[in-house]
Amino acid sequence: MDCASALEGMSARLDGALAPDDASALDAHLEQCGDCRQAGRRLDDLHALCGAGLPSRASADRTTTAILRALTRDAAGASASAPVAVPPGPLSPSAHGRWGTLLAMAGAIAATIALLVVRPPALQQRARDASAANDPARMAANSAAVDPSAFRITLTSGAVESRPPLASEWTVVPQPVVLACPVGSSLRTNLDALCEFTCPAGGVVRLDEQCEVELTAVDEITVRKGRMWCQAAPGSSLKVISGLQPGVLPIFRCVADSSLQTEVDASDAITVLADRGDVHIQLNDELIQLEGGRRLLVRAGGSEVHESFDPIIDTAWMAPLLALRQEGGPELDSRLSRVLAGVGRSKASALYERQLVDLGAPGAIPLVAFLRSQDAAGTQDQRLAAANVIRRTAPASTIPDLVELLEDVEPEVRVAAAEALQRLTGETHGVPPEDWRTLGPAQRRAVAAWRKWLTDRGQV
Question: HSE on the CB side for 103, CA within 13 Å?
Answer without folding.
Answer: 27
